[in-house]
Write a structure and sequence with these properties.
alpha+beta; Collagenase (Catalytic Domain); Neutral endopeptidase, domain 2; 28 helices; 14 strands; binds zinc ion
Amino acid sequence: MSCSSRLLALPVMAFSLLAQAPTGIDLGAIDRAASPCNDFYQYACGTWMKNNPIPADQSTWGRFAELIERNRETLRNVLEKAANDKAERSAPEQKIGDEYASCMSTKDLDAKGISPIQPSLDRIAKLSDKNALAAEVARENAEGMRPLFRLGSGQDAKDATKTIAQLAQGGLTLPDRDYYLKTDAKSVEIRAKYVAHIQKMFELAGHEPTRAAAEAQSVMALETALAKVSADRVTLRDPQKRYNPTTVTALAAMAPVFDWKTFLNEEGVTVDSLNVSVPDFVRGLNGVIAGTALPDIKTYLAWHVMKTSAPLLTTGIAKENFDFSERTLLGVQEQPPRWKTCVQLVDRQLGEALGQKYVEQAFGKAGKERTLQMVAEIEAQMAKDIQSLTWMSEATKKQSLAKLASVANKIGFPETWRDYSALNVVRGDLVGNSERASGFELRRELNKIGKPVDKAEWSMTPPTVNAYYSPAMNNINFPAGILQPPFYFRDGDEAANYGAIGAVVGHELTHGFDDSGRQYDGEGNLRDWWTADDAKSFKERADCLVNEYGGFVASGDVKLNGRLTLGENGADNGGVRLAYMALMDSLAKHTLSNMGDYTPEQRFFLAYGQVWCQNIRDQAARQRALTDPHSLGRYRVNGVLQNMPEFQKAFGCQAGQPMVSANSCRIW
Ligand SMILES: [Zn+2]
């Protein structure tokens, strides 16, 4: 449950395009009828957007989504081969192959109906009083459900060498508490559809419509009550507010209606204290449990069993789940073919077993070395940048440089692969396998409590196209999946590589110094190392970004949330600047010629812009604006570049044009 800053919200996967001629920018994506100084995103991506409508089974389609699809095909080949139980298979191949085969046999799943979850439903039905809730919730956690709240582990924010138990808010089904609380017409409509969806699911489980309708109302009432006591996402971004060491005795006093000691005991967690990220939520939870009748709590628990298992049950239940979670919430028009769902499932449950096969096939040594070199260059630029800041005192500069010097880099894949030998995967037992995989993962997570921190651990699987910075580890992590076009072109145009993977490296590095990351020191401890004046200057500069991005429209009347996206926008702005400085440094040593119509500087900005070429459905844009700390692709490009005189010079933009901000923001 570590809190890290990623490049994207959803980890996605890519496949090496080694067979494709490596170049750099995509000339065919450019809309030459557009002006780069009016709308650079339209200029860099306009033709791509026109020629690449969103496929029916997707909510968003971006330039590297093509890689994701190719990757899925590769992983599919790996899995189909591993699924052949007549062939000789290694232990990891048996597990990934049998889980994939279990997921693919929809006929078998249809024949089973809801019988795979019947034992869990029966157990819930038998609960006779609220005192039995603690043991039941513990049991459900081990099976992959997370009703009411979330227990996990993580580094102690103020002593990063320690792993402690962490208790977080949770228990909602809709993507955010605002979905339950907002009163605009669209939110009201989504809630009505959600209630209808719950009813339909209970009917598919065999309940009479009248009973199912009442059950839907009670689930909605309980989740709304939880939403009301939940903290919003902006509050949760503040690491000081999330840090609340609490003794188990004090926890029990905050929410006496729930038997915490039994719960922790059942989870095998023997601690005297833990971090409670939102104390008000726990106090509120007490009221919710106390104020809800036991039959309604049981209905809520049954709902979480149904919802979590829906993709693993019958075709009808999986489709109903898709219709609400994907079609209504994200605007996706068609259910993806089954094999895509199954590839994702194996990546989630057995990610390092599948990832090992991916790395064997798709990751070259050259990619790792070039990325390490890029990281070194960009770190050197960040040091230069810090030293040159006019708004920061020498004392804070010294501390910043010390933190920068201790950032660790992890590239490609784990040095030691996760050992799944204790996890039993049985062909034909999809729900059982998923429960065991969830239990295995929960045990792995909780077993870390009280042990030394393992800094070599990865929280993304190797085929993932994403990257992250962990403030408590003070490390940046680049899975093999992202070291591919359009981020990295082996033997391709150097200017484009700086604009793409270079900007990603700069982005992750800047996270160590964004509004949240700056509150941690080089050892990963939450400790204020800033002078008061420097902190004030930082906040003023950050407010500039809050105002800038808060003015961007996501969909209809929904704008981006400038505070929710501040860390990511800061990282984008800093990242592009650092990558550009690295390109300048490189050009000073050896010149790059123009290619076609474009100078190296222009190709840098085009490569950056084109990484974010995307089409997105209105529903998905709306969900992103409410829940995602990352801005939409259009604003990741235009929002950054309108702040950069270097961009404006490269394309000859003049004051007064839209891509030249009258009040340009800059922190780093
Ligand atoms: Zn990020």
